[in-house]
Amino acid sequence: MAARGMATAVAHPNVALVKYWGKQAGAGNRPATPSLSVTLSGIATTTRVEAAPADRLWLNGEEVQDAKVAGFLAELRTAFDIPGLAITTDNDFPTGAGLASSASGFAALTTAVDAAFGLGLGGTERSAWARRGSASAARSIFGGFVALVERDMEPIAETVASAEHWPLAVTVGVASRRMKSVGSTEGMERARATSPFYKAWTTSTHDDFAAALRAVRARDFDALAEVAEHSSMKLHALTLTSRPAIVYWAPATVAALHALAQLRRAGTGVFASIDAGPQVKAFSALDDADEVAEALANVPGIERVIRCGIGPGAVVTEAG
Ligand code: DP6
After folding, report:
1. How far apart are the CA of 310 and the centre of ligand 1, in A?
2. Which of 43, 48, 265, 275 can bridge 93 by disulfide, Cβ–Cβ 3.0-4.6 Å?
3. pLDDT band for position 1 (cuts 50, 70, 90)
4. Which domain holds residue 23?
């Protein structure tokens, strides 16, 4: 299909099993450590781009200014001839509250721009561009279990196992729909500059990544649960020991962690993962997802439960 300056793309948020928190020095938005995530099904960002006299952005129906998007477009225009853009982007889940809307957002935006203006990017290149917008977005270009690693001095995202390889359930307990106070970019820079644990984080994460990859390949739930919960807790140890400290958790976040631990003691395989916000993401076998969703829904302060699975990468839904 010839590119005529308009396209729509859909991308999904991802949840990291081994978290990214910290960048290498220098340009290009390069993570300091490897990370491993699952791309979610069940929630999505839909982004439409169209050639326009000047850049304008509508997020969930409201016109907004976004420095990250502006910076990303400026960088893209150093490599490609792209006109002004009218961008409309809609999330069917809470925006900016630790559900990785920047990951699905930059994955959808990069995919839509590629299709609209015939940039001819392959998946790896699209992922590298999405990373410049937001590093976790590099992973949302692909489906299933996705690694973001450094290879030949370049960060590269790739699917390491398909969704069918191990179709887990990811059940999200929404502990607060308020916008988060400190964004990831600022939070991770603060950790790098001030947390006494940052060095230990960067060295130990390599072993976490290797252990998680082995667990995914072997479909070893207990091994994955142990290392993924550890990685998530270690990230929050960084935010809590940054100066000033960042507390991403709401009271319901802690209550949900206790409820999931109780389920686990009663014999259900489940583990929790928390990103830069108060939401709790619970991983379990598909057969246990009803029980996990019910347990989360019964936690005081959990406003809503969203049922997700492991899903596909970013796709173009309309181009013309
Ligand atoms: C906690 O990808 O949003 O979700 O690259 O600065 O845009 P920038 O950060 P971002 O950080 C994601 C952090 C995380 C963990 C993860 O997804 O690995």
Report:
1. 19
2. 43
3. very low
4. 6-164+312-319
